[in-house]
Amino acid sequence: MQIQATSIEDYISKIPEDRQTVFKKLFDLINDHLPKGFQETNSYGMVGWAFPLEAYPAGYHCTPGSPLPFMALASQKNFIAFYHMGMYAKPDLLDWFVSQFPKYSKRKLDMGKSCIRFRKLDDIPFELIAELSKKMTVENWIECYESNFKK
Fold first, then answer.
1. Which of 126, 37, 132 is nearest to 90 (CA)?
2. Residue 136 is inside which H or E element, if any?
């Protein structure tokens, strides 16, 4: 389920009302803890953070001419999805997150390769997401991206 929006505010206004407060809290939390250099984006039917083309002209290999994505949030039909490309590309970061998750949530981790699904809005591990948001700088992400994905 993609939400077509012209801005982050527009995106948030289009998600179900019962999710807006939690979604905005998660968005602001990530924004407050993310290292400098990433910019807010509204693309792929989600809101997120990317490394801008002005600073990294090579951009994203899957969508040439677009900024290099890093993290994103999406409101899906039954959950809020949190995407973190660093965990997808860096196994030790994924291992750290998986090992820490039970300390912050009483629920089982519901996760795909880079997507964490939060079905119960009252049990989002905000502190853990804040810690995860700090873990990769722009330089770390570019190095990781170029060694794993760029051909």
1. 132
2. none
CA-CA distance, 139 to 98, in Å (whole number)? 24
For 85, other C-beta atoms within 10 Å of its C-beta total 24
Residue pLDDT, tens place only, 61-90: 888 888 999 999 999 999 999 999 999 899
Go through 103-142 and write b for each residue having 16 or more CB atoms within 10 A of its CB, e for each that does not.
eeeeeeeebeebbbebeeeeebbeebbeebbebbebeebb
Contact 39, 49 (CB under 8 A): yes
What secondary structure letter does DSSP report for 45? T
Residue closest to 109 by CA, chosen among 91, 130, 94, 89 = 94
Give the span between the Cα atoms of 62 and 84, in whole angstroms: 16
Q: How many CB atoms lie within 10 A of CB 68?
A: 25
C-alpha 32/C-alpha 42 separation (Å) is 18
pLDDT at 1 over 80: no
pLDDT of 56: 87
Return d(Cα 103, Cα 28) in angstroms, integer. Answer: 22
User: Structure pTM?
Assistant: 0.91
